[in-house]
Amino acid sequence: MIFLRRLVQLVVLLIQSGLWGVAPSPTDEGALRAGHGEHGEPGHQEPHKDSYSTFASEFLESRYLSDDGYPFPTAPPVDPFAKIKVSDCGVTKGCIRYGKPGCDAETCDYFLSYRRIGTDVEYEMSADTDGWVAVGFSSDKKMGGDDVMGCVHDDNGRVRIHHFYNVGQWAKEIKRNPARDEEGIFENNRVTCRFKRPLYVPREETLVDLHLSWYYLFAWGPAIQGSITRHDIDSPPVSDHMISIYKYEDIFMPSTAYQTFNSPLCLLLIVALTFYLLMGTP
């Protein structure tokens, strides 16, 4: 490989020095005659550099060579992942947040947004995990027989969109993937993604029509070599009512750590304890 690289660099030097060029075109010959006098005396001639040698020298220049000595073009710059705007929640898109009160797409345990774009629905998902994050579309709030879209972080650092179907408590990957315009990033120990999916699809067991309302199932968890494993919590959250993509809501669901004082039993115990402390012991 080193010999091949040296050989290519030698060709570059020959091209740049003009010792190795291409046959002059008729235009070049005319320019050459114009550079001589009437009787063929050499006159003033501008240095000539044909377009082929210019291209070749730039393309084969050593900084464009791989470690193995093969030339390759420079890749175009990649646009960074646009951050999810929570200021649009409830206005131009619907959002569902699960976690600490006041959390956003970068701090919630789980975050989902949805909005209509023409005949598509755009979804944004983010979760505090290094594996996968998913949303399921259910008719009964229970896992089983559900259409699921998931974003999975693989061992190469990429985040890919996958289509699953819940068979009981097991998510089976489906080859037919309705997602398009996929984006994903793994950053700050969070998996975040964005994709579009058609509103209407041909009737099929593993795909639902998104123009209808569904209960949304939310789940996230670890992945092994790009394959999802069991979700992080035993009872993943689910929307308390059916979600319609025609209604942009901003829904907050407190995570388990912040649900304690919302429990009716807990409130009753607090009232009883307060009464006991105020009245004193007999």
From TrEMBL:
Arranged from A to Z, the UniProt key words for this protein are: Membrane, Signal, Transmembrane, Transmembrane helix
Query: Which InterPro entries does this entry report, sorted A to Z?
Result: DOMON_domain, FRRS1L
Domain DOMON per the UniProt entry, residue ranges: 108-223
* Pfam families according to UniProt: DOMON
Please verify whether the record's keywords include rRNA-binding: no
Q: Name one GO biological process term.
A: regulation of glutamate receptor signaling pathway
PROSITE patterns from the UniProt entry: DOMON (PS50836)
Q: Where is the sequence biased in composition, kind Basic and acidic residues?
A: 35-50
Signal peptide bounds: 1-24
Segments passing through the bilayer: 261-279
Q: Where is this region: Disordered?
A: 30-50
Family matches, as PANTHER family: DOMON DOMAIN-CONTAINING PROTEIN FRRS1L (PTHR46902:SF1)
Q: Return the protein name.
A: Ferric chelate reductase 1 like
Organism, scientific name: Seriola lalandi dorsalis
